[in-house]
Amino acid sequence: MLHLIGQRLALMHDVARWKWNHDRPIHDPAREALLLDGLVERGAKHDLEPELVRAFFTAQMEASKQIQEADFRQWKAEQRERFDSVPDLSTELRPRIDQLSESLLTSLASLAPSRGSRELRPVLERLAPEFIARDAIDPEVFQQAIAPLTGAD
Prior knowledge:
Elements: H1 2-21, H2 29-44, H3 50-78, H4 89-111, H5 120-135, H6 139-150
């Protein structure tokens, strides 16, 4: 689960680069709402409660936006021009994010019975620094992404 979350968050730098190059906003509430509805629907096929799926993926989206916002702040300060060789959002990045989301649903289904348990929280918190360091993700952003699993949401 942590590996999948880390992979998804790490992709957000490329998403931000594409949005920067194409002058697109980070926030897209209408698209996010549609995505969440679809994830809740797919979560039902894994016998997941809609509230859990919605909370989990809302946390992923919020963490993702934080990464993109931090990138944009840095690039504005640097007066950054366009990036070269950025993967396409529609044909490369979104399909990869969709694959990770499906894997996250499967993993969430296996962890759902333990969600918020006394045993799961310390394990996730002990392992999280490894994924934070490997994927160069801000610890607060990563903690936000795993909060629905630890019961800290």
